[in-house]
Write a structure and sequence with these properties.
18 strands; alpha/beta; Helix Hairpins; ATP-binding; Rossmann fold
Length: 649
């Protein structure tokens, strides 16, 4: 279907690709993965014909239609949402307009026996047949179905495209691509502008899509649910695996381990041969054996271990200052923009050490509530921040709020104070800014680099309430995992707005669902919430059965439900295990601090210092109490783990 042959692209002093070759077949569902800057978007642009490589060719059939959704696109349509989506059927619409004109001409004619009249009749018949074959009779139904799946409401269909944000306009472009049904669909980060429900709908749609799909995404769950092949770009080379992303991760690591083992064995073999040659090089009686060994040494094909790009951000958040038990509390909270209600009658309390996910359709108020909490955005009702709460806020457009004319170093140095100032370069190094990079101006950074710089600023002052609005949008897989691990170790309170299910899984214990102007609380992580939503849908089966006579029905796949239940159980097991590891690290830290004080109290030379420090005994008792509490938590978690395993067996 499409063949990439010896492709080479040279960019900023290095090869993005060097003699890359692979083939895309008709039903492939390929995930294109690699670090930011590896060349994924460049490869999609070359396949789409927008960019030419330095070397190599892209071979494809002349009749292959390619649909390409870039990360960013400028939309200028003046019509309504429905009209703009219908433009996907431009050929069908032209046929329809032509047929209407022919019908008008036929209605005005009376010379029924004339050849020209018969010619018009034949043209109308041919047009109507083509109209039918091209799906003209179904185009409006298909358009409605796809717009609804991508999150639009029927009331949105007649609103002008210009009224919507860039993210919603991108959904219209995606709808047009899906309606055109190209032979090859190229999607560059399609989930960036979708909410969880729309992402799940798109997953189901792509599974039944008749053409081939190449998708770039940092959403691991999306890749696992859509793809059956993973193509990795790393260090200018291509690694091709016939499996989804999770399977690729395991195979890639296994392949590297095998390479390393083969390399080590060969190095020992080469060393033995070289020692023999050196030992007997000058002995005439061994000359033939030495020559034989030297020829053998030249013939051995050297085993190589693939280079892996392991550069990634690495950091942990500073310890959180103590805060009151209630961190945030809202009573009858509401937000209106003019006559438009975002949400109303919202009541909740977020307590110390709660980890909360804000989820829901775009436009339902997740970011608005985050701004009310972090920036004091105007609102109705009560919203109070608790005692001694210090907020760290990462806005969805945080990268755009940076001073574009400052350098990377200046951006951090401007806000660094006290003991942090000498550590600015180390902090930047943890976020992959080193050498000349720290002197770059913000305006020349990529989206991912700006996001990393904005995250780095969060480390400069200790906070006990982190509010993060879509923090993973521009991060690669490895960096997302490191951010998630850092958040798991954060000892404050977390509110995170995200549509990335894999990132949220095991991270939060509460989900705030934004829907139809209300905010509903759910206990558990994101997959607990998604399972509850499915159960809520299944509860309607009885109603659907009663309404069957009226033509209403609902299809439910029990196999899928069982599969999702099993997957959820596996995720719950990982979540409990992760919490146990976190408590064990806390116990280790407390035991170390207690041992240090024990040593100080036991040493006679520290007697005067101990007496002078009036707080040492209070700290000692406090640490021991915390240790007892942590041990209780550890026992409770192990009991929970045993019960969970017994329930599943």
């Amino acid at each position: 279907m499409l063949s990439i042959n010896n492709l080479s692209v040279y960019f900023t002093g290095r090869y993005l690709f060097d003699n890359v070759t692979f083939l895309i077949t008709e039903r492939d569902r390929a995930g294109l993965v690699g670090k930011n800057g590896a060349g994924k978007t460049t490869l999609l642009r070359i396949i789409n014909g927008e960019q030419q490589p330095e070397g190599g060719t892209v071979t494809k059939p002349n009749d292959l239609q390619i649909g390409y959704l870039p990360q960013e696109i400028v939309t200028t349509g003046a019509g309504t949402i429905f009209e703009e989506a219908l433009n996907a059927f431009d050929a069908v619409l032209k046929l329809k307009a032509e047929s209407e004109q022919i019908s008008i001409e036929i209605a005005e004619r009376t010379d029924y026996d004339a050849d020209s009249y018969l010619h018009l009749i034949n043209r109308l018949h041919e047009n109507e047949e083509r109209f039918r074959l091209l799906g003209g009779h179904e185009m409006e139904g298909e358009t409605e179905k796809i717009l609804l799946g991508l999150g639009f409401r029927p009331a949105d269909f007649n609103r002008r495209l210009a009224e919507f944000s860039g993210g919603w306009r991108m959904r219209v472009e995606l709808a047009k691509l899906l309606l055109r049904r190209p032979g090859l669909l190229l999607l560059d980060e399609p989930t960036n502008h979708l909410d969880i429900e729309s992402i799940q709908w798109l997953e189901e749609y792509l599974k039944s899509f008749s053409g081939a799909v190449i998708v770039v995404s940092h959403d691991r769950a999306f890749l696992d649910n859509v793809t059956n092949r993973t193509i990795e770009i790393s260090m200018g080379r291509i690694y091709d695996f016939k499996t989804s992303y999770s399977g690729y991760v395991e195979l890639r690591e296994s392949m590297r381990e095998q390479q390393q083992a083969a390399y080590s064995n060969q190095q020992r073999q080469l060393a033995d041969i070289e020692r023999f040659i050196e030992r007997f090089r000058y002995k005439a009686t061994k000359a033939r054996q030495v020559q034989s060994k030297m020829k053998l040494l030249d013939k051995i094909e050297r085993v190589e271990v693939d280079d892996m790009d392991k550069s990634a951000i690495h950091f942990r958040f500073p310890p959180a200052p103590p805060s009151g038990k209630v961190v945030v509390e809202a009573v009858s909270l509401a937000k209106f923009y003019g006559h438009h209600r975002v949400f109303s009658d919202v009541d909740f309390a977020i307590e110390r050490n709660d980890f909360v996910a804000f989820v829901g359709r775009n436009g339902e108020g997740k970011t608005t509530l985050a701004k009310i909490l972090a920036e004091g955005l105007d609102h109705n009702g009560e919203c109070s921040i608790g005692h001694n709460v210090k907020i760290g806020y990462y806005a969805q457009n945080q990268a755009d709020l940076l001073d574009q004319e400052r350098t990377v170093f200046q951006t951090i140095d401007d806000v660094a104070v006290g003991d942090i100032r000498p550590k600015v370069r180390n902090i930047l190094g943890s976020f992959l800014f080193s050498g000349e990079d720290i002197e770059k101006k913000v305006k020349v950074l990529s989206g991912g680099e700006k996001s990393r710089l904005a995250l780095a600023k969060l480390l400069l002052s200790p906070v006990n309430l982190l509010i993060l609005d879509e923090p993973t949008n521009h991060l690669d897989m490895i960096s997302k995992d490191i951010l998630k691990n850092a958040l798991l170790m954060f000892d404050g309170t977390l509110i995170v707005v995200s549509h990335d299910r894999d990132f949220l899984q095991g991270l939060t214990q509460k989900v705030f669902e934004f829907r139809d102007g209300k905010v509903k609380q759910h206990i558990g992580d994101i997959y607990d919430f998604l399972e509850k939503r499915r159960i809520a849908t299944l509860d309607q089966l009885g109603m659907a059965a009663k309404a069957a006579a009226a033509g209403q029905s609902e299809e439910v796949s029990l196999n899928k439900i069982n599969y999702e239940k099993k997957r959820q159980q596996e995720k719950e097991l990982r979540k409990i295990t992760g919490r146990i590891e976190k408590v064990e690290q806390e116990i280790h830290q407390l035991e170390s601090e207690i041992a240090s004080i024990d040593q100080k109290l036991a040493s006679p030379e520290n007697h005067v210092e101990v007496l002078a420090d009036g707080t040492i005994y209070e700290r000692y008792e406090s640490l021991k109490n915390k240790l007892v509490s942590a041990m209780d938590d550890w026992e409770a978690l192990h009991s929970e783990l045993d019960n969970f395993k017994n329930a599943g067996s």
